[in-house]
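Lesson 9: reading folded outputs for more than one chain in a single document. The general rule is that every protein is listed as its sequence immediately followed by its structure tokens, and records are never interleaved. Here is the first one.
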Amino acid sequence: MERLPSWLKQSLPDIKSRSVSHNLNKFRVDTVCRQAKCPNINDCFSHNQVTFMILGNVCTRHCKFCNVEKNNAPSGIDYEEPVRIAEAVRFLKLKYAVITSVTRDDLSDGGSGQFVNVIEAIRRIDQYIKLELLIPDFEGNLESLKTVIGSKPFVLAHNLETVKSLYSAVRPEADYGRSLNLLKMARELDNGLITKSSLMLGFGESENEVIVVLKDLRKVHCDIVTLGQYLAPSLKHYPVKEYISPVQFQRYADIAKLLGFKKVLSGPKVRSSFRAEDLTGELKYA
């Protein structure tokens, strides 16, 4: 692809952004912001918004779009990690925290127990902090999903990432139907739960395919959807096939709202956890 269009230019780190990054290093916690080379890292850190990444920084999946290190034999579970994250949340004075993880197919519970450990550690510090969990598919394991939902997160997110026809090329170890079913089961297990998913665009999908995904998400009662531009982390990753215009992103937002999503965030710089606290705003856990 040609050079980045003007609407994808990113901000430089300011004093606040550098301070947040320094403090995250001090507490020895990982963030998907840094591990995945998120282009919004300076914007989010400057607004004191962080997406913590648990269960190490090595993923057992080999998605073609992701910068996180991949290996079928990552290290064991760090049981001190929840305490460090909770202390970082306290120090940064966060009122809303997003917790995600690498995919850990090597663990019998997919890492669901560690999600709960992190939630419990944060709630021991402040029970009123709102927690958004961005979870892997746990290979469709219902018990792992029950474990996570039993911890009563404010938002339960799971990303479809792309359209069904591109899964084999972009997410070869994931399954479109399995991911949709996870969101469906989540609402069946807790009807008051706020659910969320995200799409990256620019892999070569058609407009009609994107609309089909939006409709599929509404069929499983997904409440929130975000759509953003895919940017390849390196030349070794899946190439960007198209830069989607801001006008097209607005069109998708309008379609999503008509389909009944409670909240929609759609734009070139949007990522799944971008402005998560602002996006959920007035929404309430039912």
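And here is the second record, again sequence then tokens.
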Amino acid sequence: MELDLSPLSLRVYEALASETRLKILEFIGGNKRSVSEIATFLNVSNSITTRHIQQLEDCGILDSERGRGKDRNKKLVYLKVDHIYVTFPVKIYHEYQLYSTNLKLGHFTNFSVTPTCGLATATNAVGQFDEPKYFMDQQRVDADLLWFGAGFVEYTIPNFLKKNETPKLLEISFEIASEFPVSNNFCPSDISIYINEIKVAVYTAPGNFSDTRGRYTPSWWHNHYSQYGLLKHLRVNEFDTGIDGIAHSSVVLSDLNLHDCSFIKIRFAVEADAKNKCGLTLFGKSFGNHDQDILINLYYTK
């Protein structure tokens, strides 16, 4: 589950702001517990316990089912999520000037992918799943969801930087997850990110999430398919390359030779020698939890 600072996340924060409900989550752990078991553990009534459980269900942290056999009349509750991520607002350096590019997922300029793979727009799938040839279908330019098991996609954007402008920070933000047939919340994948053919970072996506529906994922997309990714901010500056403030490599902005190129190439790859090979999924405006495509910001001074 991914949260931010918008009112949409408030129900989750409110549900977690209780010592009693935190004890319930810890007691349930990886098990399925009945209301009476939880009430006994808390030493409170079943009715009070039910109200706490309902609040945790309403915000998507818990789910429930009916028991089987002798427990068929009991409601059994269990954890629906394993991790909760909080995304804070991006820090903007107002003293810098900015070139900004909004990059649609389907506007890749080069690719080589192997199944599982596919593309989807806000309204339909593009061609047939697991057929790489549909990555050249005419509908691919409208794609807001893209996934593959191995290989790469590469994007090319114009470099507007002038000779008298000094680059200070290149930031690329994107919503990303790993890839697994249908979905798998525990499937780490090492995703290599290249800028101008230089590997700047390897990000390990922890899973391909379907524990809750993505906020923007269209209703026609099946609940069991990948629903959302995590919003990542890759930043290359004068000192290193980091993702969400954590250094990932010693590549610095001058290594990218931005003054010597008319275009900037960005590649996302799952490579053959990766330790964790579970593909990748990219989310655009009509899928996932964030109302954006791939956003590239180049901050500079004159």
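What the second record shows: Residues 90-301 form a domain with the Jelly Rolls fold (CATH 2.60.120.260).
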